[in-house]
Design brief:
Number of strands: 10
Structural class: alpha/beta
Strand order of the largest sheet: 1-2-3-4-5-6-9-10
CATH superfamily of the largest domain: Metal-dependent hydrolases
Shape: globular
Order of helices and strands: HEHHHHEHEHEHEHEEEHEHHEHHH
Number of domains: 2
EC number: 3.5.4.4
Pfam family, one: A_deaminase
CATH topology of the largest domain: TIM Barrel
Low-confidence stretches: none
Keywords: Hydrolase, Metal-binding, Nucleotide metabolism, Zinc
Strand content: 5-15%
Mean pLDDT: 95
Radius of gyration: 19 Å
CATH class of the largest domain: Alpha Beta
Helix content: 40-55%
Bound molecules: zinc ion
Distance between the termini: 10 Å
Protein name: Adenosine deaminase
GO biological process, one term: hypoxanthine salvage
Number of helices: 15
Length: about 350
């Protein structure tokens, strides 16, 4: 088998379900936007700034990791800056060969300069639409769906859930909660999840990244999550060996085909996995969980969707059939309507991989 090169991976269509808007800015854009609002950055050299983000996220210190978001969020407080960041996000993903992306952000973090929650959402949706159009003009097709995130330490989840439902016909396809897992179980936001279920809406929950099985169990069995953001600690419920044994929870997740939004580089940076080569994605794929590959925070991890795929190719020897499997898994798990998912699978993904293989 000829090893797959980065250039070919970029050309292959990919689907991405877990990507944070405030974790994917271009360093040069941060420098420009920071100058406009007099925000002080660690450095104003875009190259150095990009390295600062990755090093801070790599440092193993949660404080330094979180500090990186202080800078990105600080420059995303106006309609114009949100529009620009969202447009560039769509363009960058399209240039990387991503044909379908769900990008998430927390509207409540962008109110420091007088925007309303609705104003934030509208600016981002308009930005995604503009970026998608500009990409199409270059011959790069991408469909971007938006997820609205509520912060798990805050108390606005019901309000954000209602906001998501309000924009469901204009680009918002789902809801999420994010933030520190320990001490902030998803059951704190049960009202929001029950509301979303009554509205026949979709949601994912960040669970099983820093924290273990109880967080995953609550997300699924108490909150009714459609997907798991990370879910990497699910391996704690699998006894390894020649014939791995699944516990009740991991068996349930596999039986129900609950998608796992795994983010290899990010999981290594936060200590959820020791290395790419030892990342549970290898075992979870062998056991045929509904595994998807994601970027999480492209800026902080210095990564892209293609790079995540390339890392897996290097670490596990995956070929086109595995990359196609991850891509179709993601597309099957997307929050857009079934017929739209099917058309991307049958008209875009399968024909492209048939040619590559
Ligand atoms: Zn995340």
């Amino acid at each position: 088998m000829v090893p797959i090169g980065m250039e070919e991976i970029v050309k292959a269509p990919k689907a991405l379900l877990h990507d944070h808007l405030d974790g994917g800015l271009r360093p040069a854009t941060i420098v420009e936007l920071a100058a406009e609002v007099d925000h002080t950055l660690p450095t104003t050299d875009p190259g150095e700034l990009g390295r600062w983000f990755v090093e801070s996220a790599d440092s193993g210190s949660l404080e330094r990791y979180l500090e990186t978001f202080d800078h990105t969020v600080a420059v995303m407080q106006t309609a114009a800056s949100l529009h620009r960041v969202a447009a560039e996000c769509a363009l960058d993903l399209a240039a990387d060969g991503v044909v379908y992306a769900e990008v998430r952000f927390a509207p409540e973090q962008h109110l420091e300069r007088g925007l309303t929650l609705d104003g934030v959402v509208e600016a981002v949706l308009a930005g995604f639409a503009a970026g998608t159009e500009q990409a199409a003009a270059k011959g790069q097709q991408i469909r971007v769906g938006t997820l609205l995130t509520a912060m798990r330490h805050a108390a606005r989840s019901q309000e954000i859930a209602e906001l998501a439902v309000r924009y469901r016909d204009t680009g918002v396809v789902g809801f999420d909660i994010a933030g520190a897992e320990a001490g902030f179980p998803p059951t704190r936001h049960l009202d929001a999840f029950e509301y979303l279920q009554r509205e026949n809406f979709h949601f994912t929950i960040h669970a099983g990244e820093a924290f273990g099985l109880p967080s995953i169990w609550q997300a699924i069995q108490w909150c009714g999550a459609d997907r798991l953001g990370h879910g990497v600690r699910l391996v704690d419920d699998i006894t390894p060996g020649g014939d791995p044994v699944l516990g009740r929870l991991s068996a349930y997740v596999r039986d129900k085909r609950i998608p796992l939004e795994l983010c290899p580089s990010s999981n290594v940076q936060t200590g959820a996995a020791p290395s790419i080569a030892q990342h549970p994605i290898g075992l979870l794929r062998d056991l045929r969980f509904r595994v998807t590959v994601n970027t999480d925070n492209r800026l902080m991890s210095g990564t892209s969707m293609s790079r995540e795929m390339a890392l897996l190719v290097d670490a596990f020897g995956y070929g086109w059939s595995e990359l196609q499997w991850f891509t179709i898994n993601a597309m099957k798990s997307a929050f857009i309507p079934f017929d739209e998912r099917l058309s991307i699978i049958n008209e875009v993904i399968k024909p492209a991989y048939a040619k590559l293989a």
